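Readers of this paper often ask what the protein records in our data store actually look like. An entry from our holdings is shown next, in its original layout:
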Amino acid sequence: MITQLLTVFCGSLVGFSLALTGGGGSTLAIPLLLYVVGLHDMHMAIGTSALAVSLNAYINLIPHAREGHVRWRAGIIFTIAGIIGAFVGSEIGKVVNGQALQALFAVLVIVVALLMLRGRKASSHRPGGQAIKYLDGRLGGVGYGAGAVAGFFGVGGGFMVVPGLMLAARMEIIDAIGTSLLGVGSFGLATALNYARSGLINWALAGEFLLGGIAGGWIGAMLAQRLAVKHGVLNWIFSTLLITIGIYMLAKTVHL
């Protein structure tokens, strides 16, 4: 019973993070499954979290869409390319040592967070920025790359999808967060299906994670809408979350 309650609680944290920032889903879910819930297999944690985070992302997409913060055309182009990349990346990731995967992933998360902080400071001097230009080729290329990396590490990839959409389609962060949930859900589902073929999903834990994520997701979406009017707040939260997660996972990997 305690394990089930812990799993639901951890799921609520993941759902909250997904809805608030568009990322942090699997990057939170994997260490929570390993160190709080008690899964001892890295690949099992990846498969289970990919399924739970995928379904959470689709559910959290609903309130963002209602608020008009989902750019469907850009999101669909980005997602289709990313699904192909996710299948390729996840096939490779399954044969890589779990500890090596975790260490590489932690470093990647920290680098992306630092680039996001740098990008936020640089973008504050750009005029306009309200018009979104859908560059199909660019969206497809960035989407494929984000999907491949997400599949390799077994995550939804929100930490790459959000900046990827901002770069390729020149979106405001609140729109990139809402749109990213379409990609996060699809990338995670592609990864989960690949891991399920190898029997690397704990279905009961995935269901409990999803249950908690539904409640946390609605709260996160409401908070994201309120913070959208404060310039740079969501960027700062997103980057700080990634740096914290990356340092924690790296420390656990090297047994600090």
User: Anything to note?
Assistant: Residues 120-134 have pLDDT under 50 and may be disordered. The chain has one domain: 2-253.
